[in-house]
Amino acid sequence: MIYVNLLVGLLALVGPDALKCWSMTKTQLRRLLEAHELAQTVAARELGIDPRTMRRYVAGDLPVPLVVEYALQWLLLKRKGEKA
């Protein structure tokens, strides 16, 4: 949750329109999670978002906000560093 809060704070400095940006597709999100062997529920918990929201992103029912993409990239880098 700290990741999302930090990034939301940073993006809020840029302005509210920055939070409306979408970039990652549902397929890209699914592939990224699979490539890092990260379950949707685990990713949601570590990002501090509701698991239902993550399922909606993966299903394509909701667009993946840029802030979530950045937080996920940060989480994956952190996890990679912990494994090394």
What would you say this structure looks like, in words?
- By secondary structure, the protein is mainly alpha-helical.
- It has a single domain (2-83), classed as lambda repressor-like DNA-binding domains (434 Repressor (Amino-terminal Domain), Orthogonal Bundle), CATH 1.10.260.
- It contains 5 helices and no strands.
- The protein has helices spanning 2-14, 26-35, 40-47, 51-59, 66-83.
- Helix 3 (40-47) packs across helix 4.
- The radius of gyration is 12 Å and the shape is globular.
- 18% of the residues are buried.
Compose a concise summary of this entry.
It is built from 5 helices and no strands. With 84 residues, the chain is mainly α.
Largest sheet: none
> How many separate domains?
1
Please estimate the helix content: 55-70%
The CA-CA distance between the termini, in Å, is 23 Å
Approximately how much beta-strand content do the residues carry? under 5%
Number of helices: 5
- Any idea what the shape is? globular
CATH homolog superfamily: lambda repressor-like DNA-binding domains
Any low-confidence stretches, pLDDT <50, length ≥5?
none
Q: Nearest-angstrom radius of gyration?
A: 12 Å
What is the structural class? mainly alpha
CATH architecture field: Orthogonal Bundle
Helix-strand layout with pairing:
Elements: H1 2-14, H2 26-35, H3 40-47, H4 51-59, H5 66-83
Question: What key attributes describe this structure?
Answer:
mainly alpha, 69% helix, 84 residues
